[in-house]
Amino acid sequence: MRWGKFVLLLLACAVLGGCASSSSSQASSATASPLVLHLDAGSYSVTSSRTTLRGEATRGASVEVGGQFASVRDGHWHRVLGLRIGANRILVEATMRGHAPVVRSITVTRHRTLAEVESRAKARAEVKDHQAAEKAAEAETMSGCTNGSYTNSAGNTVCSPESVPTAPAGATAKCEDGTYSMSESRSGTCSHHGGVAEWLDE
Fold this sequence. Notes:
The chain is α+β, with helices and mostly antiparallel strands. It is 28% helix and 32% strand. The radius of gyration is 41 Å and the shape is rod-shaped. The termini are far apart.
């Protein structure tokens, strides 16, 4: 009779799966527990081109910061990252076999240093000064043109051919109709003045 009950108990365990040991149940429960991932700081701002992120994670877990593996020791991790100007959104991920990965995000905003701001302002001022000098030179050229001016293929302002007794300053050719051209290239010189009679810049 006892033997029959034992057989029935074995069959029940096989069919219902209710005879698992408490130790295996505890192991399954431990495996299902979530990973721990903490960051020591929330989003912040810096002027440095590099920053160090730190935090804690479950012992034995691997941690990636911005796609790069962090140094992990006794559950504490850290990673140095380079920053670009502006907002840098960084993902931190902890992984461990048998666990679902855990991801956190942080935004580190990098502002320009005082030296960078001054350098940028200086560069902009130099560009403006250069543009102002070009405009002044163009205005000076136009003021000396007795027959108006035109913009050549290089984007420079050049005096139109002038009808004067002698070659003016900057003349490069004398046209067949007696005018003088200040053209900077030979292509098209005196095209509306009968062609070139004589080159003056040879």
